[in-house]
Amino acid sequence: MRTYKNLTIIGTSHIAIQSIREVGNVIMLQKPSIVALELDTDRFYGLMQKKKRKLSIKDIRFMGVRGFLFNLVAAWAEKKLGQMVGTSPGDEMKAAVQAAAEVKAEVALIDRHINITIKSLFRQITWKEKFRIVWDIISGLFSKKKRIAFDLKKVPDNAFIEKIIARVGKRYPSIYSALISERNTFMAKHLYNLMANYSSVIAVVGAGHEQGIIEELKAMHKQENGSK
């Protein structure tokens, strides 16, 4: 968790029990004016529906084949990991919505639509990176190197997250750009406006976005002060 001016950013793991507890506790304690979530409108309504809608072939029409497959694999992976720790992907976002309602805070959706992100990813990704992904998967299956271990029920510490993000940026620059960097900028712009219009803001985002968003906001405020 980081604080910058009137903003508190809670970096979460989407399947960690720790995140669910922390989000609810911080919102109840601080009683912010507004709670910002790393969600777009479609993902928000999909998450909050009692009966989950599964992806179907019809979704290809809106997502494209590659987007459909990307969503399918990502949803499957998050579900499996969630089952390992007894949570469902997005439970921390539900906890944030519930806590916001209890303290009578507004809710804002600040993330870019997932379809735009996927299109950006496939527009940028190179064959070199695709081969690297395949190679890393294959070599990972047979490698005897000691694997990094961490508790899925907890959010990794900042040093670990920054190390992983730096590794992704170096080895998979297109993935880093589309999934992390561009979204940091998008969400920071929303938060910049919220900070100007609300006395206190809490943002609930994936831990990998926490530092990047803070840096974007600092740059925006520096530019604002320099232009005055």
Q: How does this structure look, described?
A:
63% of the residues lie in helices and 10% in strands. It has a 5-stranded mixed beta sheet, with helices on both faces. The protein is α/β, with parallel strands linked by helices. The protein has helices at residues 17-30, 41-48, 60-85, 91-102, 114-124, 127-142, 158-171, 173-197, 210-227; strands spanning 2-4, 7-12, 34-37, 106-109, 201-206.
Task: Break the fold down into its secondary structure elements and pairings.
Layout: E1 2-4, E2 7-12, H1 17-30, E3 34-37, H2 41-48, H3 60-85, H4 91-102, E4 106-109, H5 114-124, H6 127-142, H7 158-171, H8 173-197, E5 201-206, H9 210-227
Parallel strand pairs: 2-5, 3-4, 3-5
Antiparallel strand pairs: 1-2
Portion in beta strands? 5-15%
Taking pLDDT < 50 over at least 5 consecutive residues as the criterion, the unreliable ranges are 80-86
Label the overall shape: globular
Please give the share of residues in helix: 55-70%
H and E string: EEHEHHHEHHHHEH
For the largest beta-sheet, the strand count, sense and barrel status come to: 5 strands, mixed
- Write out the strand line-up for the largest beta sheet, numbering strands in chain order: 1-2-5-3-4
- What is the total tally of β strands? 5
Give the C-alpha Rg: 18 Å
Total count of helical runs of at least 4 residues: 9
Q: What structural category arises from helix and sheet content?
A: alpha/beta
Distance between the termini: 31 Å
